[in-house]
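thread: overnight batch results

M.L. [08:02]
morning all. the overnight job finished for the chain we discussed friday. pasting input first so we're all looking at the same thing
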Amino acid sequence: QLQFVESGGGLVQPGGSLRLSCVASGFTLDHYAIGWFRQDPGKEREAVSCISSTDGTTNYADSVKGRFTISIDSAKNTVYLQMNNLKPEDTALYSCAAHGYYCSIYVVSYNYWGQGTQVTVSS
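M.L. [08:03]
and the structure it wrote out:
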């Protein structure tokens, strides 16, 4: 089965940090772009960040620029999302998914969704 497995979420105080991991299962990350997304109940899924294994291009939502960093370790078939200076509005279920070659702005065009990992930012 082709999918991602996310981990690293948890409860953290405002200003804290977490590092999320996204491990590909059943395929390699070569020739894919991997995106991180988040969703709160009752809200639409939001694109957070994306990285292309093809050319290394990265992009970020305006709300996380300067705080989040996406990276890829091809040897481990894993994509990371380092999240610093977390805010209560970052609270959501974070998931990753893949798109062919380059990042896409269309969330529905991504595949191999994992179950997600919950991030809760609260004092």
